[in-house]
Amino acid sequence: MADVDAVSGPSKELVSFASYLYNPSKSGLRAREGVLNGRRVQYFKGKSAVNALTKEEDGRKPRCASREEALEWVQELLDFQLIVRCDRDAQAGRLLRINPMQNFDEDTYYAWLYEGSQIMVILGGIGVVAVVLAGVMFPLWPSVLRNGTWYLSMLALGLLGLLFATAIVRLIIYIISVVVCPQGFWLFPNLFEDVGVLESFVPLYAWEAPKDPKQPVEVTAAAAAAGGATIPTAAAAAAAEAGAEQKKDE
C-alpha cells in the first residue's frame, strides 16, 4: 500500500480505488440513493465494498488479495473523507445521519463524498459556454457560415412542416376510408411508432383489421403496425358469442 501524506491529500492509487468502487460496471458495487444533510448521495454497506474488492470475476485477479487489505483501503477512504460513515433513520430508510465514529465496520453504511471524475462535467460546461458565445457572436460569423446556418435551419423547418403535413393528410385519408369502406386505410402506418427513421415509412400503406367479432381476425404484419388496428380479444369474442346465443333463445 502506498504511503499517503495527510497534508497533500489522497494518493493517485487511493483515488483509483475510489473510482473503481464508485463505478458499478467495474466493481459490481450497487449503491442506493439516500439523503444526507439535505443532499442526495449514493450509499452502500461496508461488507459489499469489501466483497467488491476481493471478488474474482471473469478470471481476473481481485483488486485486493485479502479482506484485511480491503479493510485497510476502505479505512483510508474514510480517513480522507472520500466516504463517510452514516446511519439510516429507523422510520425513513432513505434519510441518513453522519455517525460520529468514523471507523470502518462491515455491518454499517457509508455514503459517497467522492463524485468521480469531473472531466466530462468540465467538458460539458465548456461546450455550453462555447455554444452560447457562438450564438452571441453570430453577427461576426463569416458570410459563408451564416448562409449555411440559414439554409440548414430552413431545411429543418421544411422537414418538420412536411412531417406535420403528412400526419394531417394520412388522418384525412383514414377518415374518408372509414366512411367509404368497411375498414380504414393508413398511409405510412409506422410513422409514429417506436422504430427507426427508415422503418417509419415502411410499409407504404396498410388496411385496418375488420371489426367483426364473430369471425377470427387475421392481421398482417403491415396492418398490425398501423397503430389503429382493432383486434378483438378472446374475452370480447366470447362475450359477443354469448350475447348472440342469448338473442337466439329470446
TrEMBL record:
Family recorded in the similarity comment: Belongs to the SEC62 family.
UniProt key word Endoplasmic reticulum: yes
Transmembrane segments annotated in the record for this chain: 119-138, 150-173
The keyword Mitochondrion is annotated on this UniProt entry: no
Name recorded for this polypeptide: Translocation protein SEC62
Top-level taxon: Eukaryota
Pfam families referenced in this protein's UniProt entry, alphabetically: Sec62
Any single biological process term in GO: post-translational protein targeting to membrane, translocation
InterPro entries recorded: Sec62 (IPR004728), Sec62_asco (IPR011553)
Organism: Coemansia biformis
GO cellular component: a single term: endoplasmic reticulum membrane
Protein location: Endoplasmic reticulum membrane
Annotated membrane topology: Multi-pass membrane protein
Keywords attached to this entry: Endoplasmic reticulum, Membrane, Protein transport, Translocation, Transmembrane, Transmembrane helix, Transport
